[in-house]
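Narrative of activities, Objective 1.

The group set out to show that a structural description can be obtained from nothing but a protein's sequence at a throughput compatible with the screening campaign. Below is one input-output pair from the validation batch, recorded exactly as produced.
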Amino acid sequence: MIVVMKPEATEEHVQAIIDRVEHVGCKTHVIVGADQTVIGVIGDGRSIDIRQIGRMTGVENVVPISKPYKGASRQFKPSDTIIQVGNITIGGSDLVVMAGPCSVEGRTELLEIAHACQEAGAHILRGGAYKPRSSPYSFQGLGEEGLKYLAEAREATGMPIITEVMEPALVPLVSEYADILQIGTRNMQNYALLNAVGKSNRPVLLKRSFSGTTEEWLMSAEYILSHGNNDVMLCERGIRANETETRNTFDVSAIPVVKHLSHLPIIADTSHAAGKWEYVGALTRAAVAAGADGAILEVHQQPDQAWSDGRQSLKPERFAQLVTEMRAIALAVGRDVPLVKTAVPANGQTQPQELLATITAN
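Output recorded for this entry:
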């Protein structure tokens, strides 16, 4: 439920409400507005007498939340959630672009593609150090070595990094290196992992399961939010259907649906939806037009030699063109894709502008 306080309510009145609901095991989330304070109550509130709460001093109104996902509901928080990662804002008027290789393959390769992605317009660097694969014989990632390469790429470019965490025991280690923790589609309902990242101090990107409904997806987000981690963003990456020409079917309708039901930002992963680079551009443009808060894309210097998911990876020059197209569509719907300033590495020398041309020419 939501407890709306009167404009003249004091801090003591607010604290009295908090004490009452937390006494029965519920958690509270206080939203202080310009005119009023709103107290969101999260948990099993069946033991709370709503009428009694409504009669407490300073209370203007008590509104039950009908959705099973409380903290993720727009009823709970009407305004959009804004997540700050360094100097990057996610969920505001600007779109964020996350890009990089599916897997971290080596130090030199990662640094090259990181600079190329930044030059082309990426704000956040993606790359997998731990890779969940369908086959146990496929490349599973470089582990902590890959995390160290990602951290070095962040130092060289200034871009925050996002990488996947696969099990609860790895959350502390990955959090040491990553700015954003990614929960993959296979782990959307791994509740032990959701609880672990909920207790972390890192923003979380929660990918939708390829068979998950919108409600199941938002309920998974609720696990993270219930531990006090409010920096959660959702990621639509395609659902499983009968179609075989694409890897998954990109559910573009999920974007406006989530925007209607929830205050959480939503990111489009069109690389995994398409499965083929030829379709990534069209799906990304559709996602921007539908209201996505950003995109996470796979980019590789030589996709045909990539250790994983090369077929769906864009070359840097194609990625650069797509960012330009994203910006045009964003401006048409009242948003923008902000330009990225060239980073100054530790040696104080600006990264040469010729680097992108050199990489893409090879």
